[in-house]
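Two records follow; treat each independently.
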Amino acid sequence: MSITRRSVRRSAAVLGLASGSAALVLGLAGSALACDIKDFSAEAKCDGDQGVIVVTDTDASAEDATVTIFLKGAGGVETRVGEQPVTGSKAGTSITFTEDWKPNATYRVHVKAGQAVDEDVRPDLVTPATACATGSPTPTATTPSSSASPVPSASTPAPAEPVTPVPSASASSPAPAGGADNAPSPAAGDSGLAETGADSHTGLIAGLAAALVVVGGGAVWFGMRRRGADRDG
């Protein structure tokens, strides 16, 4: 069987068509596996009472990427929260940023993956309206609460109140007036005066005085009588 020019041209056309189809399929497959910003998603979650931001990369091409998160403030001012590398997978690879986010806060998530991706995840991440920490932690049984007043245990006696010393009756009570024990001792020569109300020699002296008066009166009377007798003689 001879090969004609016509059959050669036909074979070349068939091979060209096959090559073009293969290139198109490979191109489409490469585009499907290429890293894209749509492969990234971000979510604000709670890890107990701690806020976190989780970024997931579902890039089937497993291209290395870098994720940077910024907190958007008032007036367009941004604060960098952190930056982490990630290698995507078809099932999804997640990375976690520890961030004590506030309710209704806005974060910008930027992704850089080689020459294919250098842009932000859209839309921006907005945190939930409720914060993670809903109340203060409950104190443990071994740690007393700072606001609770200490309660004395039943076995511990209450501190005794100070006792005011009471003066004894002998020290504070005045001695009875005229008492024999507290009265001053009379002098040796005044014992008769204390018993009778006067000196013990008062009666003797009065008797001697009366006797002297009588003697004196008798002497005067005797002298006057003698003088009268002399005048009569």
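The next record belongs to a different protein.
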Amino acid sequence: MNNWDGILYSSELKSCREDLHRFLDEEYSSGKVFPPREDIFRALELTGPEQVRAVILGQDPYHDDGQAHGLAFSVGRDVKIPPSLMNIYKELNSELGLYIPDNGNLEKWARQGVLLLNTVLTVRAHEPNSHRKKGWETVTDALIRAVNDLDHPVVFMLWGAPAISKKKLITNPSHLILEAPHPSPLSVYRGFFGCGHFKKCNEFLAENGYEPIDWQIEDVQQRLLT
């Protein structure tokens, strides 16, 4: 899995991995859980460790039907854009003048080295935070530490209290840490709007000799016409 296997299957995570596997077996067999099991590690499949230029860290997956597909804040191209992602698009429009697309699929970001990671990677349908403290935090902490240990600069965009709590894991002075409230309608006006994270991220990457992220998501309709 793009060289993340050394972390996911390390001896340090063995006990946690086994407990989490049993928990997920029960959850997926007894009810509706998101994302689909084959998509749990989609973010890692699309963005390998050496590709990471930025990390957008969220809370847990979308919990409504058909939304979560393994990338934080992202949904499929045929799914209505959730309010949190719409607020992200509004901030991009304000910062960089990007138009708001007709879909919420963020795979383009992931393929450019933006690791779209949640602190918890699964959720019971319609029950936010239902898989909190079941073992995922140990796994994602290990992933964050691995990114922290990379020998090239990375931008960490921490949105919301669960993400900001991971700041203590980011000790490499080469990295840039950006913090903001979660972009949900409940907190977006407390400082997410106007945070400038996307512009700051690209300025930092350019200063360190890296290509900036192309944040513009294209319209599905436009893609079909070309």
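Discussion point: The radius of gyration is 17 Å. How would you locate this feature using only the token line?
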